[in-house]
From TrEMBL, chain A:
Region (Disordered): 65-100
Signal peptide interval: none
Membrane topology: Multi-pass membrane protein
Natural source organism: Nepenthes gracilis
Highest taxon of source: Eukaryota
Name of this protein: Uncharacterized protein
From TrEMBL, chain B:
Protein name stated in the entry: Geranylgeranyl diphosphate reductase, chloroplastic
Keyword Transmembrane helix: no
Role description: Catalyzes the reduction of geranylgeranyl diphosphate to phytyl diphosphate, providing phytol for both tocopherol and chlorophyll synthesis.
Family, as annotated: Belongs to the geranylgeranyl reductase family. ChlP subfamily.
One of the protein's GO biological processes: photosynthesis
EC main group: oxidoreductase
UniProt-listed Pfam families: FAD_binding_3
EC number annotated for this UniProt entry: 1.3.1.83
Record organism: Nepenthes gracilis
Database matches in PANTHER family: GERANYLGERANYL DIPHOSPHATE REDUCTASE, GERANYLGERANYL DIPHOSPHATE REDUCTASE, CHLOROPLASTIC
Pathway(s) the chain acts in: Cofactor biosynthesis; tocopherol biosynthesis; Porphyrin-containing compound metabolism; chlorophyll biosynthesis
Database matches in InterPro entries: BchP_ChlP_pln/prok, FAD-bd, FAD/NAD-bd_sf, Geranylgeranyl_Rdtase_fam, Geranylgeranyl_Rdtase_pln/cyn, Geranylgeranyl_reductase
Origin organism lineage: Eukaryota, Viridiplantae, Streptophyta, Embryophyta, Tracheophyta
Catalytic activity: phytyl diphosphate + 3 NADP(+) = geranylgeranyl diphosphate + 3 NADPH + 3 H(+)
C-alpha cells in the first residue's frame, strides 16, 4: 500500500522543483510540485516504487503508474506525493496529458447501468415501464459488492441513488408477498385449530367466541405471535433484544442499588 | 425487526417528552428542595472550626477544572492535582454551543466552528447536515490542552491551588469525619523531573482523573465497558484543508467500525481522522485503515503528525460515590453512546458535584457527608439519564448493521431530524417535537429500515 515509504526521497522531491520551475503560477506553491511530479514520476521513481510495492495492502488494485493512487498516509510524511484521481485532473491538465494519471487505486463500482452515481432507470425499462424488480436486484448486488470492496467517498462523483424512488408496491411485490402467503396460512391454521379446541372444551361455537373478550384477546396474541415469531430462532432474538434494551438501565441504576444498602447502614 | 424498531422509536419520543416535563418542573422545584436538605445537612454534620472544608480534585481536565473553580468560588479550600499541565489529550474536541455560554468560555479558544456535517453511509450516500442551523449556531472545536489549561487557570484565579503532581493513592479514613490522605508525586521547580512524594489531608475528594481513574480504583468503584478510540492527526495540504474549513465528516459502515463511526474532524490546522469500537478492539488498525480509505480523496497527500488512542467509557461505573469521594466526568463514565461526546458532560458533572459539596458544607463551614455527594448523583441522573438512554437506543437501533446504517443516514437527511438533533446537541435540552412531524418521521424511518433490510435479504440471497 505504501509506495513511497522512504521518507528521505519524498522530502527531497520539492528541492528538485524550485519555484522558478513552476509553470502555472496561479496555483499555490504547496500544490505545484505535484504537477511536475506526475509528469516525471515515471522516470524519477519507477524503480523506487517498484521496489516498494511489495505489499499492496488490502487487495487494492493499483493503477498502471504505480506511484499514484496508493494510500499515502501510512507512516510516510509525503507532502510532495502526487495525488490521484479527479482532483488532479481538475487542477492540472499537465498531469493528465501524458496519460499517466489514473483514478485512485481503490476499485470503483462499475456497471453500464450505473451512471453518474445512480441507476439509469431508462436502461431498466421493460415494455415501456421501469422494471423495479431489476433495480432492487441491481442495488442489492451493488451493496453486496461494496461490502467486500469499500469505496472511497467522493464529492466529485457522489452517490445520488435513493432507494425511496422505488415505489412502495415494488417492495411489497418483491419481499412481502411470498412471506405474507406463509404467514397468512400459518395464522389461518392456528385460528382454525384454536377455534376447534375452544369449541370442544367449552362448547362455545365460533360465533360465540368472536363476541367473547377473552377469545378476542387470544386472537390478537396469536396474530402478534405469528408476526413476531417467524422462525424458531426468533424467540432467542426477542429474548436477547429485551435483555439488551434493559441492560443500559441496569448499568445506570447500579449506583443506586449501592445507595439503598449504604443508606440503611447509615440510618 | 421493523415493527420492533418502530416500538423503540415511538417509545423514545414518549420518554423524551415526559422527561421534558419533569425537567422543567425539577428546574422550578430544585431550589426549595436544596434549602430543605441544607437544614438536614447542617443538623447532621459537625461544624468545622478554625478552617474551611478542604477538598482535593484529582485530575485537571474539564471535569476537574470546572469542579475546582466552583469549589473555590464556594469558599472551599481546593487542591487541584494534575499530572501533566500541557497534556494534549487524544480527544475529538467538540463542544456544544451551550457550553460556551454556561462556562463562559472566551471565543478565542474555539479553533473552528463546525456548521456543516456530512454523514456517509456504507454505500457512500452522503447526506449534508446543518442546513437548519441558524447563523449564530455552531459546534465548537477546541484543543484540549487549550481548554483544559484555561479552565484550570480560572480555577486558580478563583483561589484553588493547582498542583502539578501524579496522584498515587488515597487512604480511606478509619473513623467518620476523619480526613482522607492523598499520596502524590509532586513536580515543581524544587522537585525537578524526578518529583517528590508528598501527602495531603483533605475532607473530601472529587475524582476527575479520566477513564483509567486511580480514585475509582481506590474506592473500588468497579469497572465499565469501554470503547477504544483511535485517532490520527493528519496535516493535509491547504487546498484540501479548505474543504474541512467548517465541516466534519462521519463515516458509518461495517468496514469502518462494527458498532461506532469513523470521523474526520477539523482541528486548528489539521484534521483528526479516527474510529472507535467496543466489540472488536483488536481490529482497530484495520478500521482506521478503512476510515482513511473512505476519506481518501479528501486527505491524500496528508502527513500524520500524531497518533493517539484512548479508552472511552460506555456506561457509568457501578459505584460513583463512596462516603466523601465522588467521581465525575470520564472517571464516572459519563460519555454518551452514539455520538461519543464527553467534554460538556465532564465539565457539567464536575460543576454539579462541586455545587453539591458547596451546598452541603454551607460554603465550607461544615463537614460534608455521603448524602451531600449523593445529591449530585441524584440531580445528575434526573437531568441527563434520558439523554444517555435516547442515545443508547439510537446506537442500538442504527449502528447495528449496514442496512440499519443506511436507514440512519437516510433519516438524517430529513430536515426535521436535523433540527431536533442539533437542538438537543447544541443546547442539551429536549424540545418537544411536533407530533405530526414525529409521526411522519416514525413512518419514514420504518420505511427506510424496511427497504434497507429488504435489500439486505436480497444480498444474502445472492451469496447463496
Amino acid at each position: 500500500m505504501v509506495l513511497l515509504s522512504s521518507s528521505t526521497t519524498s522530502t527531497r522531491i520539492p528541492v528538485l522543483f524550485p519555484r522558478s520551475f513552476v509553470s502555472k503560477p496561479h496555483f499555490s506553491d504547496y500544490h505545484n510540485p505535484y504537477l511536475h511530479l506526475s509528469k516525471r514520476k515515471k522516470t524519477l521513481f519507477s524503480t523506487l516504487s517498484n521496489g516498494a510495492t511489495t505489499d499492496n495492502g488490502a487487495g487494492f488494485e493499483t493503477s498502471a503508474t504505480a506511484v499514484i493512487g496508493e494510500n499515502p498516509l501510512e507512516n510516510n510524511p509525503t507532502d510532495s506525493r502526487p495525488k490521484s484521481g479527479k482532483d488532479e485532473e481538475a487542477v492540472g491538465p499537465a498531469a493528465t496529458a501524458g496519460g499517466e494519471v489514473e483514478t485512485a487505486g481503490v476499485r470503483k463500482f462499475e456497471n453500464p447501468k450505473w451512471v453518474n452515481g445512480t441507476w439509469d432507470l431508462k436502461q431498466f425499462e421493460k415494455d415501456g415501464k421501469t422494471d423495479w424488480d431489476a433495480v432492487i436486484d441491481a442495488e442489492a448486488r451493488r451493496r453486496k459488492w461494496l461490502e467486500n470492496n469499500p469505496e472511497s467517498s467522493s464529492n466529485e462523483d457522489p452517490v445520488v441513488f435513493d432507494t425511496s424512488i422505488i415505489p412502495w408496491w415494488a417492495w411489497i411485490k418483491k419481499f412481502h408477498l411470498p412471506e405474507a402467503e406463509l404467514l397468512n396460512g400459518r395464522a389461518a391454521m392456528i385460528g382454525f385449530f384454536m377455534a376447534y379446541l375452544v369449541d370442544s372444551l367449552t362448547g362455545l361455537g365460533v360465533v360465540d367466541q368472536t363476541s367473547n373478550f377473552f377469545c378476542k384477546t387470544m386472537l390478537f396474541v396469536a396474530v402478534a405471535g405469528v408476526l413476531l415469531i417467524r422462525k424458531n430462532e426468533d424467540v432467542e432474538t426477542l429474548k436477547k433484544l429485551i435483555e439488551e434494551t434493559t441492560f443500559y438501565d441496569k448499568q445506570w441504576q447500579a449506583a443506586w442499588k449501592d445507595d439503598t444498602n449504604s443508606r440503611s447502614k447509615t440510618d | 425487526m421493523a415493527s420492533i424498531s418502530f416500538k423503540h422509536f415511538a417509545g423514545l419520543r414518549q420518554s423524551t417528552l415526559d422527561n421534558h416535563h419533569s425537567l422543567s418542573s425539577t428546574a422550578a422545584k430544585l431550589k426549595p428542595i436544596i434549602r430543605l436538605r441544607k437544614i438536614t445537612a447542617s443538623v447532621n454534620s459537625p461544624k468545622l472550626s478554625g478552617r474551611n472544608l478542604r477538598v482535593a480534585v484529582i485530575g485537571g481536565g474539564p471535569a476537574g477544572g470546572s469542579a475546582a473553580e466552583t469549589l473555590a468560588k464556594g469558599g472551599i479550600e481546593t487542591f487541584l492535582i494534575e499530572r501533566k499541565l500541557d497534556n494534549c489529550k487524544p480527544c475529538g474536541g467538540a463542544i456544544p454551543l451551550c457550553m460556551v455560554g454556561e462556562f463562559d468560555l472566551p471565543l478565542d479558544i474555539i479553533d473552528r466552528r463546525v456548521t456543516k456535517m456530512k454523514m456517509i453511509s456504507p454505500s457512500n450516500v452522503a447526506v449534508n447536515i446543518g442546513k437548519t442551523l441558524k447563523p449564530h449556531e455552531y459546534i465548537g472545536m477546541v484543543r484540549r490542552e487549550v481548554l483544559d489549561s484555561y479552565l484550570r487557570d480560572r480555577a486558580a484565579g478563583a483561589g484553588a491551588s493547582v498542583m502539578n503532581g501524579l496522584f498515587l493513592k488515597l487512604d480511606l479514613p478509619q473513623s467518620p469525619n476523619a480526613p482522607y490522605t492523598i499520596h502524590y508525586t509532586a513536580y515543581d521547580a524544587k522537585t525537578g523531573g524526578a518529583g517528590q512524594r508528598r501527602t495531603l489531608e483533605v475532607d473530601a475528594v472529587i475524582g476527575a482523573d479520566g477513564a483509567n481513574s486511580r480514585v475509582a480504583k481506590c474506592i473500588d468503584a468497579g469497572e465499565y465497558e469501554y470503547a477504544i478510540a483511535f485517532q490520527e492527526r493528519i496535516k493535509i495540504p491547504e487546498r484540501k484543508m479548505a474543504y474541512y474549513e467548517n465541516l466534519a465528516e462521519m463515516y458509518v459502515g461495517d468496514d469502518v467500525s462494527p458498532d461506532f463511526y469513523g470521523w474526520v474532524f477539523p482541528k486548528c490546522d489539521h484534521v483528526a481522522v479516527g474510529t472507535g469500537t467496543v466489540t472488536h478492539k483488536s481490529d482497530i488498525k484495520k478500521f482506521q485503515l478503512a476510515t482513511r480509505n473512505r476519506a481518501k480523496d479528501k486527505i491524500t497527500g496528508g502527513k500524520i503528525i500524531r497518533v493517539e488512542a484512548h479508552p472511552i467509557p460506555e456506561h457509568p461505573r457501578p459505584r460513583r460515590v463512596l462516603d466523601r469521594v465522588a467521581l465525575v466526568g470520564d472517571a464516572a463514565g459519563y460519555v454518551t453512546k452514539c455520538s461519543g461526546e464527553g467534554i460538556y458532560f465532564a465539565a457539567k458533572s464536575g460543576r454539579m458535584c462541586a455545587e453539591a459539596v458547596v451546598e452541603g458544607s454551607e460554603s465550607g463551614r461544615r463537614m460534608v457527608e455521603e448524602a451531600d455527594m449523593r445529591r449530585y448523583l441524584e440531580r445528575w441522573d434526573k437531568k441527563y439519564w434520558s439523554t444517555y438512554k435516547v442515545l443508547d437506543v439510537l446506537q442500538k437501533v442504527f449502528y447495528r448493521s449496514n442496512p440499519a446504517r443506511e436507514a440512519f443516514v437516510e433519516m438524517c437527511g430529513d430536515e426535521y431530524v436535523q433540527k431536533m438533533t442539533f437542538d438537543s446537541y447544541l443546547y442539551k435540552r429536549v424540545v418537544p417535537g411536533n407530533p405530526w412531524e414525529d409521526l411522519k418521521l416514525a413512518v419514514g424511518t420504518v420505511g427506510s429500515l424496511v427497504r434497507a433490510y429488504g435489500l439486505r435479504r436480497e444480498m444474502d440471497k445472492i451469496e447463496a
